Amino acid sequence: MKVLITGAHGKVGRAVTQAMIAAGHEVRTTDLTRPGYERKPEGTPKYTMADLTDAGQAYAVVHGAEAVVHVAAIPEPTGHPPHVVFQTNLMATFNVLEAAIRFGVKRFVYISSETVPGFFFPERDFLPDYAPVDEEHPVHPQDPYALSKHFGEQLMDAAVARSDIRCISIRPCWVQYEGNYETNLGPQVRDASVLSPNLWSYIDAYDLADAIVLATGSDLPGHEVFYIASPDNVGGHDFAESLAKYYGDAIELRELDRKDASGISSAKAQRMLGWVPKRSWRDYLDTDGKSLAT
């Protein structure tokens, strides 16, 4: 397919671009980074700089695409004023989706966020009702980033109700790649008491990219939402034991499919998309949380 990837120069966008090309798709990319004018390596996808909060620029880059993977967004709420985060993320999503509908794009993959239920940046204390968290968990977005992502998912619902487009929303966990495993996850590998808001969950950027490729090629109708998380937790700790130790009975423990289970379940994605995660923190870090590359 002819696939447009927005936000192509971020850590997720780069991994998805590589995976899409490897899967044989004809890829075009867009981001806010200024284009360079040196000779490009063979196979480099066509790149167009665009501000997707501008409807005209969004329409220009979407035109001709058969599928859109919308990754572009301000990725968290703390580095910009709240109204900038919300307006940027929501209007970019609206413009790209509206262009996709008008141009007859058949598949739209929206990169939402694990923060939609209320994780990571709550203005009031938040704990999930149960774990592992799945797509049925109630949502309580409390910050402008999570709220923009939640509304983005609602835009997908509206799109399939008024057009023939098919939408998939992906909620990735905390995304890791070669360059940040040790910094981000090393402390948790060494000590489970170093808590993270998502119950020791994470996802490798390349496993996430594989899931996005599957979503892009999926013939699922309507709009489906999928969490994408590694099946194991950071550090490989006994999940039930750690949950009870650090959260008491505040979070209901539901059935686990493995002792070292993630706090977020990707069972739906494995079942409906055929996604099979291949990578783990163990491929990058030793049991002391130190990089295996050093």
Automatic annotation (TrEMBL):
<protein>
    <submittedName>
        <fullName>NAD(P)-dependent oxidoreductase</fullName>
    </submittedName>
</protein>
<feature type="domain" description="NAD-dependent epimerase/dehydratase">
    <location>
        <begin position="3"/>
        <end position="187"/>
    </location>
</feature>
<dbReference type="InterPro" id="IPR001509">
    <property type="entry name" value="Epimerase_deHydtase"/>
</dbReference>
<dbReference type="InterPro" id="IPR050177">
    <property type="entry name" value="Lipid_A_modif_metabolic_enz"/>
</dbReference>
<dbReference type="InterPro" id="IPR036291">
    <property type="entry name" value="NAD(P)-bd_dom_sf"/>
</dbReference>
<dbReference type="Pfam" id="PF01370">
    <property type="entry name" value="Epimerase"/>
</dbReference>
